[in-house]
Known about the structure:
With 249 residues, the chain is mainly alpha-helical. It is 59% helix and 0% strand.
Amino acid sequence: MPASASAQRGPREKLVEVHHRLCESFGCPIAYxxxxxxxxxxxxxxxxxxxxxxxxxxxFRNLRDRFPDWEAVRDAPVEAVxxxxxxxxxxxxxxxxxxxxxxxxxxxxxxxxxxxxxxxxVPEAREWLESLPGVGPKTSAAVLSFSSLRRRALPxxxxxxxxxxxxxxxxxxxxxxxxxxxxxxxxxAEWDAQQVYDNHEVLMLHGQRVCHFRSPACSRCVxxxxxxxxxxxxxxxSTLRQPAxxxxx
Length: 249
């Protein structure tokens, strides 16, 4: 499609076209990557903040191996929890924060479980989760989408956010937190939870594998004609490749 035609697309129409193209590239529907219950997913998501997935997974396994249940984690000496979280960044902060959240959930629910989220409308479930200290929109969406609840909620990680900004789906000035509501509002109302999950996954994968933070691989991007950032990056390269016009004396 010519660049002028792609520029005429509205953000919603562009998002759907991006989704379809990336689904062709990565193969939708994409399988969910684990079967955590909502409480396990909450802990896993909290541990993943500013931490590589492999390291946060190790810390999560440490907790499950060293403590019989979440009540035991809540009541353990904070140093024991901190040692279990050693693979994470900032275990000295995450250990007391996790114990505080477990205590709050116990106070509110009478036990450490989040099964009631299955019965709440998604906006109410997200509001409940985000009332917990340290839980923002990415974590609330992850708990509802990635866990066995399989609810219709859109997480936005840094890769997803970067691709959306470069495509012009969201303003360059919009930070990750507020972008959740904006991007989720663009999704077709008829999409189910799987399609919303796929949308997150394909944008994240595209950011990881093609639209890198530094040196994005625009030459092999299936979205280039939709991407004003990529077109702007490619323009100087095209100019350099043009043959010089000979001068006449």
